[in-house]
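Quick start: what a row looks like.
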Amino acid sequence: IYSDSMGIPPKRFLDKLVEKNVIDQSMANKYEIDSLKKDLSIDLYLLQYTNLTPESILKIKSELLNVPYVNIGTTAIDPQALKYIPQSIAQRHNIMPYMFDSAANTLFVATTDPLNVSLQDFVEMKAGIKATLALALDQDIAKVITTAYTKNLSPEVEEAIAQVASKQKPKEQKQVQNITGLSNAPIAKIVNTILE
């Protein structure tokens, strides 16, 4: 997932944490030795075996890699961005489009591997526009993919539901409102897969 800290030497990673007052030098020395003993990259070790927040670890990592960092778990997802990458592709590649900059015609995508040139080329080819990959936490990406794509019905569907609901009796409105939860129904998934 976070193999060999993407080329960042453990000492450099830990020195940056010390410089930012996230840890002290004695902790840095201990973490370096322990990560070597466990044969884990320093960032993976820090994520699994310390009380450091994933955000503080990934912020340092993104700074050292000179790539953007996004806390995808707390970032508002731009519905416009979701139009460029279908849910099935987002799940398969564990990527999450979170922002579309219309002025720069650029799609911002969260990933655990922002230096993956093949992934960036694939996203740009699929979206048909420039893409910027940002570092994000693996688990957060998976959670946000599920919630963002199921919450965002197309505007046409939402408008149709609203029109039908406004014309019906109160008892019938409840039935129409239940339609919004059908995006997880098997037939809806089949139709979505075919359309993608």
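That is the whole record. The first strand starts at residue 96 and ends at 101. The beta strands are 96-101, 106-111, 130-135.
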